[in-house]
Write a structure and sequence with these properties.
It is a single chain. The protein is mostly helical. The chain has 2 domains: 1-132; 146-347, Growth Hormone, Chain: A (Up-down Bundle), CATH 1.20.1250.20. 78% of the residues lie in helices and 0% in strands. It has 12 helices and no strands. It has helices at 15-36, 43-71, 77-106, 108-115, 120-129, 144-159, 164-173, 176-182, 185-192, 196-251, 255-282, 289-345. The longest helix is centred in the last third of the chain and has 57 residues, at 289-345. The radius of gyration is 21 Å and the shape is globular.
């Protein structure tokens, strides 16, 4: 829809900017609604608002990726992708610390509602930078069947490649352990007795510095060892980082232990943020870069998020935090082994088929 559907009234400002502003407005409304909803009084309102934040947030990601790719010249795309990693982390760290501090002083409702201001920078970029001159034209369809084909052609092109299903399976499972661990960390910190200020300092502040160092080291690793070995090393490090939280849960509340665990996890994630994202980007056909990258990045986290939402709480209750984080470490191992197998069989460098009409 973002690529092919024109918005009434706003379309005069361009396809990319009109969707950028429209989805930003919807996301702000959803965040405010989530902040105003009281889970003790209307849990369904919280669920609907949270779902809206997820849908509009994901859509905004797709819009921004398309806007960035079309705004930059081909020679700038590499630097632009790297800067997007820094920008995403700076935004996440700023919003996270801001929300925690606001919640400590004014409550969670005010924290959520005020966090909506972090949507505005993307709106201002659209105003300042204008509509991309390299805008891809919307598909012109002559039939419903052709229109449906245009929407699904990026996915069809990918799965037709030799070994594509194995690569897709790797993308699906490689982040299960990491996602399970990361989405439950705030529960761990809260149950261990860390205050919001301590979480903001160590998890958001100290972790942010470690992540930036990881990005730098990841870039160095990628340039020295190449894509295959650097991705493999980052997968191993991200798996081991889950073990550090099992150790923290075993030790109990410890500022030094939290600093070490959070620092190592963010350092490993920073390396993975360069190497794994570069790998996913390399898999994309240049004709469908924005759409295929959106599909691949979504697939990379969907399994871990589904398991977190349905099983994580029960698992923590049954086996405790130590057992849970040991389990997340074990769940990361199949992805490491599978990537090693893909290197051996030459399936890492998955390219579009020669002569393909795509």
């Amino acid at each position: 829809m973002v690529d092919n559907t024109a918005l009434p009234l706003l379309d005069k400002y361009g396809q990319r900017r009109s969707w950028l502003w429209f989805v930003s407005f919807l996301l702000i409304c959803a965040i405010v609604a989530l902040g105003m909803a009281d889970p003790s009084q209307a849990l369904s309102a919280v669920a609907i608002s949270a779902l809206a934040v997820g849908v509009f947030g994901a859509t905004l990601d797709i819009v921004i990726d398309a806007y960035r790719i079309e705004l930059l010249e081909p020679s700038q795309l590499g630097v632009g992708s790297g800067m997007s990693q820094y920008g995403w982390r700076i935004g996440a760290a700023s919003a996270g610390a801001f929300a925690l501090l606001m919640a400590q002083n004014y409550g969670w409702s005010v924290a959520y509602i005020s966090s909506a201001i972090f949507v505005l920078p993307a709106v201002f970029v659209g105003v300042i930078s204008g509509e991309p001159t390299r805008n891809i034209m919307r598909a012109s369809t002559v039939s419903r069947f052709q229109g449906l084909f245009e929407y699904f052609s990026p996915l069809i092109e990918f799965v037709r490649r030799q070994g594509a299903w194995l690569v897709l399976f790797f993308i699906l499972i490689h982040k299960i352990g990491d996602t399970l661990a990361n989405l439950t960390l705030r529960l761990l910190f809260d149950d261990l007795g860390f205050t919001n200020e301590e979480i903001a300092f160590y998890d958001v502040g100290f972790g942010f510095i470690a992540f930036l160092l990881g990005i730098f080291f990841g870039g160095l690793l990628f340039s020295r060892l190449g894509m295959k070995r650097s991705v493999f090393i980052s997968l191993v490090l991200m798996a081991v980082s889950n073990f550090s939280f099992a150790a923290l849960a075993l030790v109990g509340k410890s500022n030094l232990g939290m600093a070490a665990a959070v620092g190592f996890e963010n350092f490993a994630s920073g390396i993975g943020g360069v190497t794994v994202v570069a790998y996913l980007s390399a898999l994309c056909n240049l004709r469908f870069t924005a759409t295929q990258y959106a599909l691949l990045s979504a697939l990379a986290s969907i399994a871990g998020r589904f398991l977190t939402g349905t099983l994580a709480g029960g698992l923590i209750t049954e086996v405790g935090y130590v057992g849970f984080y040991l389990l997340t470490t074990v769940l990361a191992v199949p992805g490491v082994v599978l990537f090693g197998y893909m290197i051996q069989k030459g399936l890492v460098d998955l390219k579009p088929e020669e002569g393909s009409k795509f």
